[in-house]
Amino acid sequence: MAAVCTASRVLAKKVLSAKALPAVSQSSRKLHFSIYGKNNSKVSDGISTQYPVVDHEFDAVVVGAGGAGLRAAFGLSEAGFNTACVTKLFPTRSHTVAAQGGINAALGNMEGDDWRWHFYDTVKGSDWLGDQDAIHYMTEQAPHAVVELENFGMPFSRTEDGKIYQRAFGGQSLKFGKGGQAHRCCCVADRTGHSLLHTLYGRSLRYDTSYFVEYFALDLLMEDGECKGVIALCMEDGSIHRFRSKNTVIATGGYGRTYFSCTSAHTSTGDGNAMVTRAGLPCQDLEFVQFHPTGIYGAGCLITEGCRGEGGILINSEGERFMERYAPNAKDLASRDVVSRSITIEIREGRGCGPEKDHAYLQLHHLPPQQLATRLPGISETAMIFAGVDVTKEPIPVLPTVHYNMGGVPTNYRGQVITHTPEDGDKVVPGLFACGEAACASVHGANRLGANSLLDLVVFGRACAHTIADICTPGEKLSPLKPNAGEESVANLDKLRFADGSMRTSEIRVNMQKTMQNHAAVFRTGKVLKEGCDKMDAIYQTLDDIKTFDRGIVWNTDLVETLELQNLMLNAVQTINSAEQRQESRGAHSREDFKDRMDELDYAKPLAGQVRKPMEEHWRKHTLSTVDHKTGKVTLKYRPVIDNSLDAEDCAAIPPAIRSY
Amino acid sequence: MSIFDMLIQLLLFNIHFKNHLEEVIIALTNIGANYFSKLEDISCCSHLLLRDCLWLAGTCVILGHWLLSCQQEQSHQDSAVTRKKYTMLSALVAKRLVSGVCQASWRPAVAELMTTRGYKGEAPDDSRGDLIEIPLPPWTEKDGETMDIKRRRLLFQSRKRGMLENCILLSLFAKQYLNTMSEPQLRQYDRLINEPSNDWDIYYWATEAQPVPDVYTGEIMDLLKEFTKNRDQEQRLDAPNLEYLDKGSQ
């Protein structure tokens, strides 16, 4: 069956003529316009006569070409689906390339290991906000995923006897936390992210995936609650493209750029979350923003956790290894939120380093220079350029910096996007999937463990591909779409292109970033958050008064950055409003006025005789936020955490407990 | 190669025991085949290990045949029987080794290709197997683009990079130099920021942490290296906003 489809596809390609596009020089990028369709891609006038719209038809469309997007696209193409991958960046330039840490998997090469211990670590790391069925799926699939990647060609670093080298990473333990530090992070020297992208991109090309590179996805095409595709802007010639498909996978990454100081590239603008919000669907747990303990003070560039895994330590102004006090067992390799909070407390109590006593030091010069050069070469350059420090002699000034977004588009463990009502529970949105940082499965819950993110990408990218392969067959006929679907997006684009208000894009952006940085940082208080919510609301309204200066349509960076700003604003308002409402401290969300976790039972005391609180009275639940994108008003609802694993006999669920390292 | 040395010793020892020769040869081929099936278990893709295994297997076969021919010379009466045994044994050897090879994840032992998307770094841990064995389609220059459009494209591509370090560095560099670059300079810059597959490489070359490959050396690379040194000690905390391009405000 698949062979017949492949044959017909090959034939169809030969029949298609090049489509008519206005004033475009003959494109030499063969990859970009691999047009496929039972109907020829056609230029339609349904939306606007000024913006020629080209329609494409595919079996599956993936938005985003990072680790998760490429894995999904590769899996789908391998399964015979005609897949398009729409991305605003060249695949090997996605933010995944920055990942230097590695992938966690219980292979057991350095010491005896069991994926159930990894399951326990992840559930505990999520502060019991993670859905245990999704975590079960991820940790059980981890060793298979790593071996699979190796078969695809990723050259993992090896030990002397030829097994995959695994290093220690924060929050990983043996024997359900009782057996000491576990070594389960597999890496490809220091370029794990790049190797992942290169391998997956290269292999997916052999299966004939169509890549639409430097196309900015504007919105989802929704009809009757079903997702029927994506509409995107081609940056090269300013044309609009509608990608019609029965299956759309969102893999657009996180939204670190809502904050003034973050470790993310300028491409992390939460485009997928915003597309889902504008479609009227909820986003989950956006208040949980991870602050990486060691971002360079000032620029925010990341110093990977792998440094601490290889022996680096954090010290305060007195030269004390202060993590020993906050996490006696794990010390510097405690979970990230614990380390971030510890650094912030040290600074607030006056033991910060530097002239303003406002950061901590990461010491690496006690490690052998050979080890630094081979296992962590990038660190020396980054420290020298952005902090002026020689790592073999001096410590690096570091500060907790926004690094990862645990929240995102809510999905089940199979990668399908869900909505929730108290009466009916979780309901799948047909045709829509999400994976990677953009999704919230939720495996990371309230806090993500290091090296679990790359694992999340490959496991759930693959899960989306498998689920689509289970539900659909390649070559299925598409349901009809209204001829003017997507016209709102084009109208918005046009409005921004000719916007002539009084506030520039960069001004509004800086206002938003500073507000988020000052009001929704590591430690949050009710009053400061409320002030922040009001300020954010005011800033949201200034979007109507925006001013852009570039009126062109070809390679208009100003327009793209303005679209990204719109997306960031939607993420920012949801983040700060959800944080203001959540009156407890859990994982990465720390409230100074509500220092404890509020679960349905008090797990610090013996459970016998306690009465289970109803969902309205405790906080062990997911936040679902929606925004009316015209007014900026945020509505919050809640959804219970999934506490049972996929197979109770194979892997018992972990009941909540007090979280200490 | 210590296993190999061991086997040589065993073989030389056993040559005296001509009666057991067949068993020795069968044992050798079994070891060779086991080595290959182990390849499948650990799914190793390091071509060094594969090379060793091929060597070992090949040597087993050669030795086996040599020993059999020695035996054959020595016993002329049973030449017919011996020939039959010889062919059966060869068939057995060939079958075990070929099936072992087919089971293992076969990768063509490619000579060290210097693709334009990869170059030798210093990390011994990194075999760069993915870059050698999964070459991406080569980068080609865009034809028919006006200089103005090229500048606009390169501006977007300078500001949107894979990691923050490059975002900051290249957008500041673009702010300073992009609008005054000549056409050959623009082409050099285009190649520099778009051809390398790993964004980190551009960063290592700019910071002189690693040597620049010959294809990228030139005026623009020198400008970038000098710019990175930041002799004026200006603060480089973030990428600049775009307003410097707004002619209306100037």
From TrEMBL, chain A:
One of its GO terms (molecular function) is succinate dehydrogenase (quinone) activity. Keywords: Electron transport, FAD, Flavoprotein, Membrane, Mitochondrion, Mitochondrion inner membrane, Oxidoreductase, Transit peptide, Transport, Tricarboxylic acid cycle. Residues 510-661 form the Fumarate reductase/succinate dehydrogenase flavoprotein-like C-terminal domain. InterPro entries: FAD-dep_OxRdtase_2_FAD-bd, FAD/NAD-bd_sf, FRD_SDH_FAD_BS, Fum_R/Succ_DH_flav-like_C_sf, Fum_Rdtase/Succ_DH_flav-like_C, SdhA/FrdA/AprA, Succ_DH/fumarate_Rdtase_cat_sf, Succ_DH_flav_su_fwd. It is an enzyme of class 1 (oxidoreductase). Pathway: Carbohydrate metabolism; tricarboxylic acid cycle; fumarate from succinate (eukaryal route): step 1/1. One of its GO terms (biological process) is mitochondrial electron transport, succinate to ubiquinone. It comes from the Eukaryota. Residues 59-454 form the FAD-dependent oxidoreductase 2 FAD-binding domain. It catalyses: a ubiquinone + succinate = a ubiquinol + fumarate; a quinone + succinate = fumarate + a quinol; (R)-malate + a quinone = enol-oxaloacetate + a quinol; (S)-malate + a quinone = enol-oxaloacetate + a quinol. Its cofactor is FAD. Substrate binds at H292, T304, H403, R448. Flavinylated by SdhE, about 5% flavinylation occurs in the absence of SdhE. Its EC number is 1.3.5.1. It is found in: Mitochondrion inner membrane. FAD binds at residues 64-69, 87-102, 271, 437, 453-454. It is a peripheral membrane protein. One of its GO terms (cellular component) is mitochondrial inner membrane. Flavoprotein (FP) subunit of succinate dehydrogenase (SDH) that is involved in complex II of the mitochondrial electron transport chain and is responsible for transferring electrons from succinate to ubiquinone (coenzyme Q). Belongs to the FAD-dependent oxidoreductase 2 family. FRD/SDH subfamily. NCBIfam families: sdhA_forward, sdhA_frdA_Gneg. This is Succinate dehydrogenase [ubiquinone] flavoprotein subunit, mitochondrial.
TrEMBL record, chain B:
GO terms for cellular component: mitochondrial matrix. SUPFAM superfamilies: YgfY-like. It holds the Pfam family Sdh5. Its main location: mitochondrion. The keyword Chaperone applies. It comes from the Eukaryota. It is found in: Mitochondrion matrix. Keywords: Chaperone, Mitochondrion. Interacts with SDHA within the SDH catalytic dimer. Plays an essential role in the assembly of succinate dehydrogenase (SDH), an enzyme complex (also referred to as respiratory complex II) that is a component of both the tricarboxylic acid (TCA) cycle and the mitochondrial electron transport chain, and which couples the oxidation of succinate to fumarate with the reduction of ubiquinone (coenzyme Q) to ubiquinol. Required for flavinylation (covalent attachment of FAD) of the flavoprotein subunit SDHA of the SDH catalytic dimer. This is Succinate dehydrogenase assembly factor 2, mitochondrial. It comes from Coregonus suidteri. The lineage of its organism: Eukaryota, Metazoa, Chordata, Craniata, Vertebrata.
